[in-house]
Amino acid sequence: MEISFPFQTNLASDISSESREKYQKLIATLPKENGWTPMQPLCPYQGFWFFPMFLEGVMYTQDHFQAQSTDILLCSSMKTGTAWLKALSFSIATRTQFNNSISPLQTTFTHECIPFLDYGEYAASQGPRFPLLATHVPYTCLPKSVIDSGCKIVYICRDPKDNFVSLWHFVRTATRNNIKELKEGDLISMEEAFELYCKGISLYGPYWEHVWGYWNASLEHPEKILFLKYEDMMKETESYAKRLAEFLGCPFSLEEERGGKIQEIIQFCSFENLSNVEVNKTGIHQAQGRLVENKAYFRKGKVGDWRNYLTAEMGEHLDKIMEQKLSGSGLTFSVSPQE
């Protein structure tokens, strides 16, 4: 893979007023579920829950996005290690164009280096483009062209207990960023969010259905879908970085391995380093008219941090749900907290 940065992108503003009106009318007919944030209700669509502001982009890409066989989609549910996967993939794929000192990741917010399909940041394709794209869209909701093109997919998931806690913190932070007059009591509590999450009502949820869709597809098409677990990557980062590079089509050479290139990229893309990059500490990211502080995307990144927020009973309850939903799939999330 020989690529450079940046490539042409088509932003949400490219969506015609006629298309917007069509999608907005359809979204207006969908049921609404309040609870996670007063900014937006959740709407059910094709078996999953979406915020209307993102669902418009999902519908548009389903209708118009034309995937190319050379595309590689980085897929995930929210708060499962998306920024880390983006940083690793970007650094691996562009390592012949940039060394760490001049990497766009030094001056550009991590999520802006690889655009999101469902945020309307890359609605359609015209002309040369960066082959790495990202999405939170469930497998069954991907644009038909993605499946038909045979392009590659990298999927990352995470222990649902850590996913829930990270999502809860993020939604509360995003709400504060956009509605300044809110009081603490106006924000969703841990208990309220937990009840909704366990019912499958969360952004891009049910979480277990999201995971199962990509897991099942990876079993059917292992040559096209690389399925990753955050916890495994944390334990054996070098091994998975090599595997990711091979899957992206730009494997590390023996010379690069001996020269420490893999470790150099791993350290550069680590939570400790990226969270201290100035743009990630002080910048503000805009998605579909909503503002979120960049630092909200870099909270802790720790395996097992859920133990600091959930009771043992709550953890066991989530484990049982996942076991029931993924029964017979061969996929488990039995992990110990990171020391």
TrEMBL record:
One of its GO terms (cellular component) is cytoplasm. The keyword Transferase applies. Pfam families: Sulfotransfer_1 (PF00685). It is an enzyme of class 2 (transferase). Residues 70-330 form the Sulfotransferase domain. GO terms for biological process: sulfation. Belongs to the sulfotransferase 1 family. This is Sulfotransferase.
